[in-house]
């Protein structure tokens, strides 16, 4: 049974054929060796038929056959479509490489011309997970941040430890974290070296951190885990991110005091 015509022709146009070429090629596949006049009638393309057939010939999808001084056309092996896929893949790879090359300049021009930070808002558990995905994606720069694991775990039980940290380690992203002191935080700190992290434990009464803040690349992410009000925001602005990052760097540079156990705590 013939597959859905619309689907077939959609695939053909996705491979680079025009809508009319796709129609003509599909008719040839169905009818086999056919004269141009018959194709013209079947397709309703009239005078465009010959031009389209020549175009399909150049693509290697149609061949011309002469028989009894008459010209016939037939579709070549559909396997030939694979060559179009290959060309598209090669073209996409080159396009992706070119985009990656010019992206820094594009973002720089955008930031300069817009003149204000880009702000994106997120809501609900899925919204916060979308922020986490952005924070923990592969990147060259480290991540600075603060969090209260006990609060975050009420929303995402062990999600940070079981899912996000392994993702960050896999992507080889170093983290500098201010974490509210708790048994869970102390347990996590024991694995700092293996998990590419430097942790400072905070006295949560003196330095409460009910919301999570992360600084990475030119972005600042803020997440609130209040019950029934899961909200988050990503602010993208180079000077804002760099300024806040500098404050975190200052904390890690000058506010570490070794304790008797060898832990680092913020006084």
Give a written overview of the molecule.
The longest helix is centred in the middle third of the chain and has 34 residues, at 81-114. The protein has helices spanning 5-14, 19-31, 36-43, 48-58, 81-114, 124-135, 149-155, 159-170, 183-189, 238-254; strands at 34-35, 62-67, 70-75, 118-123, 143-147, 175-180, 197-202, 211-216, 219-224, 231-236, 257-258, 264-265. The strands form three sheets. A seven-stranded mixed β-sheet has the order 4-10-9-8-5-6-7, sandwiched between helices. Strands 1-3-2 form a three-stranded antiparallel β-sheet. The protein has 267 residues and is an alpha+beta fold. Helix content is 49%, strand content 22%.
| Helix-strand category | alpha+beta
How are helices and strands ordered from N to C? HHEHHEEHEHEHHEHEEEEHEE
Helix percent reads 40-55%
- How large, in whole angstroms, is the Cα Rg? 30 Å
Shape: elongated
Q: Looking across the biggest beta sheet, what order are the strands in? A: 4-10-9-8-5-6-7
Q: For the residues shown, what is the average pLDDT?
A: 84
SS elements, strand count: 12
Q: In what range is the share of β-strand residues?
A: 15-25%
**Low-confidence runs of at least 5 consecutive residues:** none
**SS field, number of helical segments:** 10
* Main sheet specs: 7 strands, mixed
Taking the alpha carbons of the first and last residues, their distance comes to 76 Å
């Amino acid at each position: 049974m013939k597959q859905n015509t619309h689907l077939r022709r959609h695939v053909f146009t996705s491979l680079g054929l025009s809508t009319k070429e796709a129609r003509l090629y599909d008719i040839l596949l169905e009818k086999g060796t056919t004269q141009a006049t018959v194709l013209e009638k079947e397709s309703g393309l009239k005078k465009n038929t010959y031009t389209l057939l020549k175009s399909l010939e150049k693509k290697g999808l149609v061949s011309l056959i002469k028989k009894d001084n008459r010209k016939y056309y037939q579709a070549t092996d559909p396997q030939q479509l694979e060559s179009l896929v290959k060309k598209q893949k090669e073209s996409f790879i080159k396009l992706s490489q070119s985009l990656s090359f010019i992206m820094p300049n594009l973002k720089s021009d955008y930031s300069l011309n817009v003149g204000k930070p880009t702000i994106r808002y997120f809501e609900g558990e899925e919204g916060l997970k979308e922020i986490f995905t952005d924070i923990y994606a592969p990147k060259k720069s480290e991540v600075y941040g603060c969090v209260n694991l006990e609060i975050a775990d009420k929303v995402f039980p062990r999600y940070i430890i079981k899912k996000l940290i392994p993702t960050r380690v896999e992507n080889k992203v170093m983290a500098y974290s201010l974490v509210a002191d708790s048994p869970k935080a102390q347990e996590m700190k024991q694995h700092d070296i293996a998990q590419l992290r430097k942790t400072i434990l905070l006295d949560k009464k003196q330095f409460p951190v009910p919301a999570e803040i992360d600084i990475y690349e030119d972005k600042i992410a803020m997440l609130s885990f209040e019950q029934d009000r899961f909200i988050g925001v990503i602010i993208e602005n180079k000077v804002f991110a760099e300024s806040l990052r500098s404050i975190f760097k200052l904390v890690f540079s000058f506010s570490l005091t070794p304790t008797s156990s060898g832990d680092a705590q913020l006084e």
